[in-house]
Structures are given as C-alpha cells and as structure tokens.
Amino acid sequence: VIASGSYTVVDDSTPGYRIINAGTTGVTLLRLRFSAFDEGVSIQRVAFQLSGVASNTPIDLINSELKLYDEANPTILIGRAQFTSDGDFATSSILSNFIIPKDSSKTMLIKGDINTVGINGPLVRSGDLLKADYDGDAQGINGGNFGFGVASGSTITPTSADTSVEGIRIMKAHPIFAKLPVPSNVLRNGDNADSLYRFSIT
Description:
This protein has 202 residues and is mostly beta strands. It has no helices and 17 strands.
C-alpha cells in the first residue's frame, strides 16, 4: 500500500537565449513540466531563483514579479511569485487549481513583464541577462515547493534539482530582420533586375 504519491519538476523545453526589447510584456521565461506518480497531486507553491545574479536583478521585472499559468489555459493566471527588491529568491502564492493527474504530467508557463530602460529607470542601461529558474532546494510547506496528494491528503515535496535556463538579454532596442518573399522564382536571361533575396530591418 502506498501511503502517498510523489511528483517531479523539470525544464520543459524553455525557449533558448533570446534578445527581448525592454518594456515587452508576457515574456515566457521558463516552462516547467510537473509529473505526478501513484496519485494526483495538487501543486500548492513553487519556488524560484534568479541565476547568474551578477548580470540581472529583480528590477528587470515589473513589480519584481513572475506570473504563473497552466499551459492548457495560458490566459488564466494561477499564481504570482514576487522577488524582494534586493533578493534573488521568490516563492509563489498558493496556486489556483493546478492539479497533476495520477501518473501524468502538466506544463506550467512562467512569464514576466520586462521593465523599461531610461535615464530615470527603472532600468538605466541595456544588457541584463535575466535568468529565472526553478529552485529545487526550497522544499516544504514553510516557504518552499509542495503539494497535496489528491487521494491521500498528504503533504508532498518534489524530488527535483534546479533548472538552468539560458535566459533573455534585455535591450532598449535592437534591429529585427525579416525575410520577404521575392516577386518571382523564375530567373530570366540577361535581366539583372531579378531579386534573388529580400529582407527588411525594423
């Protein structure tokens, strides 16, 4: 007889290194896959940390805050996690209805709104490399990762390590290249005006 189940948390194909304009909202910073075993688990809290703290700060985020979503309903906020102004760790609020079915998995999206860059702040320069990771060391009901077993009612803590994302580079502005279609795919003899490749820069 199994007294209670268990669950794990891993990086679920978080997008790689990207350059993001300051002031961009709803940026996906991390994707986490939660997997439950032997019983369903209602995830209650999730802990996070900023990695590579020499190159980023909680002020990179509006309100120093992460926003959490169920990938199955990506417009419905299920929780928030707020860093203190000088701290690199944050634990979410109690989550709203994020339940992992028995012997199955669900993905959580962790998003953030990026602050603006300007003479008077909040950010005063470009170049921060923001890395928001899952904190696998923060465990338990007192400020760490935990959930409740759906069948057993037991408090369950995960057995998972920290994630290590590549992060986003925050720039006040950067050029964006886009490929454009060519007028024709047919090359004509003696006509030097044919376009072989077209692109735009904005």
